[in-house]
Every structure is written in C-alpha cells, then in structure tokens.
Please model this.
Amino acid sequence: MEWTKEQRYRSMDDVNEEEIQALSKLVNQCPWRQSFHIQPVTGLLNDPNGFSYFNGEYHLFYQWFPLGPVHGLKHWYHTKSKDLVHWENVGLGFAPSNEFDSHGAYSGSGIEHEGKLYLMYTGNTRDDNWNRHPYQCLAEMSPNGSIIKMGAPVIPDVPSGYTDHFRDPKVWKQGDFFYAVIGAQRENETGSVVLYRSRDLTDWQFVGEVKTGLGEDFGYMWECPDYFELDGQGIFLFSPQGLKAEGDSCQNIYQSGYVVGSPIDLEKIELKHGPFHELDRGFDFYAPQTTVDHLGRRILVGWMGLPEIDYPTDKHGWAHCLTLPRELTVKEGKLFQQPVDELKLLRGEKVETSQKVENGTICLDNFDGDVYELLAEFSGSTAEEFGLELRVGENEKTIVKYDRAAKKVVFDRTMSGEPFAEEFGTVRKCRLEAERISFRIFVDVSSIEVFVNDGEEVFTGRIFPGKNSNGIRVFARGGQTNVQIVKWDIK
Ligand code: FRU
Model:
C-alpha cells in the first residue's frame, strides 16, 4: 500500500478509537512480535531518544509513527524501567503540536537539571512548498512524568553555511556549561557536526563546527551525533549517511559508528582521534544513543532497523524494535559493547553441554527454542571454520560462525526465513583475530544479537523464520573444535 502525504501527516486528533483498535488487532496477530525487546504498540519505531536515568528510573523514548509501518508524523513514545530489562510502556511522551514541530517531533536527548528531566529535540516543520525548517526545541518532564513543552524554540535558526538538514541535539554537562552537538549538513552537501553552549539549557550560543580528522567529505549527512568521555578518552558517535561500502565494511544502507581520541578541545572545537569504526557489524542497526547512569556506566541503545527498507512485519502494521542496552568500555582505541549485566535477570531454565565436533554437524537435542540466551565458547580449534546454526527448520537456518582460515566472524541470514533487504546482501563479516572465540547470543522471536569475544564485535539482525524453526546445531569443517554451550530460556 502506498501512503499518501495526507495519511502520513494526519493528526492523531483526527484518528478514532476503532481505527487504532483495528490496527492493534492486526499488530497483535503478527507471528513476529518480540518478547523481550522494546517494540511499538502499533506503527513504526525508529531512533531511541531522551535516554536517561532520572528520579530512580531509566527513561527511554523512541521516535514513533503510530498509524503504520512508514515514516510519517513523528511522536515521542515513552518507556521506563527500573532495571533496563523490564520496560513499562508509559504511553505517548509528546506529540507534534505547534508551529515549531508541526511535521514531527524529531530525535533528541534528555538531561537532568534542577530536579527535572529536560528533553531537547528537533521540531521538524514544512511550509506550503514542503520546504523544511528545523527548530531545536525544549520540553521538561517533572518527577511525576508530566511533560511540558517550552513555548518557543531554544535554537530557532540554522547557522549560516548549513542546510535545513540540521537535527538531533545531544546534550551533556561539562563544568558550568551545557553543551550540545547537532548533526548538520554543510551547504556543499557534506556531513558535519556543530557545537552549541548554554548555561541554562534555554539560551544557546553557536560555538562552531567541530573539527575532526574525517575530512571534508565523509558522507552527506551526519545524523544522531553523541559525544561522551570514557576512561579519559573522547568518544564521538554518529550515523553518517552516504559512506561507500568497502570490503566487509559499510554494507548497510546507512552506517553508524564512532571515533576514539583525546577529549574534545572546547576552545579549538577540535577532536583528535583514530579511525572510524562501525558500531555493529550486522544488518539492522542505526541511530544509537547513549546515557550515563547513577552507577557511572555508559549505556548504549540502538534502533534495530534502518530507513528506506521494507520489513516483513510491515504487512502486520508495525516495524522495528530497539536493541538490548549495551554497556560500553574502551580498550586500545576501540569500544567494547557488552549486554548490561541486568539482562541475567531474564535467565530461566538452563541446559548445557560440552562437545567435540569434527568435520560435521551435531544437532543439540533439548536445546530448541525461539527465545533464549546462549553462550558458546570454542577452544582447541583446528577446523577451518566452526560455528552455530540457530532457528533451524526444514529449509531455514541462521548461521553464526568463525572462519578461522580467513580470520573472520560471519553472520549469514541467507536462509533465515522470509527474505527482505536482499539487495544489500545476506551475509555480514568482520575480521577478528583470536584463538578462542565466544559467541554470547540473544535470540528473540524475530531478532538475533551476537556479542563476540566479550563485546569486541557485535552483530545485530532481524530474522523472520517460521514458527517451527527452533533447532540449534553446532558444526566444524576442515578439522575439529571443542565447544562448551550454555543456553538459558528467557523468563
Ligand atoms: C534518524 C532520523 C533522525 C531524525 C529522525 C526522524 O533515523 O532521520 O535524523 O531526527 O530519524 O524520525
């Protein structure tokens, strides 16, 4: 079905209860609803927004188009949790409602100040000729959860030299000032990031464009920038659009990644850093956002999806989910990402086995499932390649393996189930040199997240297998390997 502009930009005030109920019914009948990931009640979810720890709880909003699996009038949907694992759907955070966000309450971030959670976001507007004008807006959430928008935008204009692709403020506090990075496009249609400064979150000064070592031509737009310091190092995370695929890298329609360097020089507005790394080597990952919690952990959540791609759930009236929260650490210029420790709370019934596999495939009886956590540790390997087949059915399987000969981790969804996005390839790989390989894997009804060697690399992908594709197998080719496998049901 083609969605018209009118349908995409309809106000929720004009939508009646029966229509929403019919849509929810369609959504709830979908065989691919997730069981422990944040997913939209109806319609489309995209970027995580306003991720923060405030008043004893984690708050995580997301970009939401309630009426169907397309990008239309964006709202902020509100979820919260005490443990990063069990999330409560609070409901609508806020809707586009005024002349400064009339065509979408776009992405932004949250920060606590004087007992309130401030949410700074981009108000997207369009004029009669469909020209865009972005405003950076502010809303405040009280401890009781009520959210009030400020009457006027806090940054009403785009600084000169940049186009109307100017959005996604991420705020942090340093010394006496608040700072915000905003994703921007230069007039010559290259991507960049700019810095603002404020004492009170309402009065913002443009500081300038952040100088990086990425050159003047690193994609045509940088979305969802994020800056933070970890272990004394400066980390800049962003989602550049327009990078070319090269070797195993940048295979998805858009990328998201980071650079690590010394802390940002706020006087020279400069970041000195190492090479760009992709955050996730799988298929469905974009627009991540981080926060720091009361325990001092830096936690990242991403959108498990990508723009401009049709997904098999579309016909069921919904699309996408968020990734599990990952704790970040930095080692030798690279981010490591580990599922937050609280995810162990989900561990239910456990089965385990040790196997020696030689030139063959072993079916693990009693290890079936479509929702579980699995840890596989391989050692003593001489095999050319070894790994796991998951969600195995008559004609389906999803492969996670280590190609020891090429020293690459491989994630293959060629036969995972209902195909989609095949034009971007169905296999993802990345180089990793190690003698011992471990895969910590979270399988939900329609997704897989693979944390390789304690989070040195992560592969995330949606998959859409049949209901009965629940087998788990382990294999080795061209030699042998030992493997120890533990699987927990998810409670
Ligand atoms: C990234 C993005 C952001 C924008 C939002 C709109 O996916 O395009 O740049 O704020 O989505 O939903």
Notes: The radius of gyration is 22 Å. Residues 5-339 form a domain with the Tachylectin-2; Chain A fold (CATH 2.115.10.20). The mean pLDDT is 98.
